[in-house]
């Protein structure tokens, strides 16, 4: 059995069909690839071998600060400035998803961060799409079926968001399925990018917004009202809008605030990323261990929770690892793990007919 894989009710978690909604391309570059490309581009890497670079990422990303966590992306984006590098990294990214049992994934990335060597945004998107298609073909040849769409991210601390929104809409027929804003959350609300979100709404283009990670309820409120978010990137601090009014052993009575009730009642998916949430301090109000994560409380209250990796390289993780750790921590069964995949399938930025097909693929895979 592969590293970090466990069995739940006799089933290998790695072999279960999975849906990945929150997965950053520049956060999932193979350490060995970073070293090779850094050498090619004349960039000084902080380690000379893949194992050493993994340790460096682990040390840098365990500070408990999203700002410090984000600094590691300077290295990965530095080696992603050519068409060849983007295509290779996207191909390997898809191959890694498929090897992890992912049957549908959304790969988010910010083209504006990959133009320093002269690429146009359109060239960058097409280079990534070539890599996706090569990765899908490689997975198919290996007997694994996978589909992957691009999410174009605007960086919330820059003024290029409207330009990136127009790029996403223009490329919707070339592999782009949705839009996101990313980067430092605190102090950069979705409301600052209202023009981009207005444009996306006019074009009926689906949006997810990073919110409720480094900032709290105001960030989530802005994502919903200004961003018209159909999903919340992380959204873990939505738990700040839950008031425990009575606790009797395992029985907990919770009162939902208006934001939490809106999110739950409209089944707005939460793109929760447990390991990342621990690293960035997103759950520090509740504790520092996985057992302190409000994931289970949100799940038991009926929120549309999904499980994600955020950044495979920075968190040294996979969907298999995230699900395995959750199952061990909260005594989840196969039915629970299947429910998380159904939630993700329902929230995928796909036409309803294709979401229904995805649900069937998941159900068949879990029944196998």
From TrEMBL:
Pfam families: A_deaminase. InterPro entries: A_deaminase_dom (IPR001365), Ado/ade_deaminase (IPR006330), Metal_Hydrolase (IPR032466). One of its GO terms (molecular function) is hydrolase activity. Its cofactor is Zn(2+). SUPFAM superfamilies: Metallo-dependent hydrolases. Keywords: Hydrolase, Metal-binding, Zinc. Residues 17-363 form the Adenosine deaminase domain. The keyword Protein biosynthesis does not apply. Its EC number is 3.5.4.4. The keyword Isomerase does not apply. Belongs to the metallo-dependent hydrolases superfamily. Adenosine and AMP deaminases family. This is adenosine deaminase. It comes from Microbacterium istanbulense.
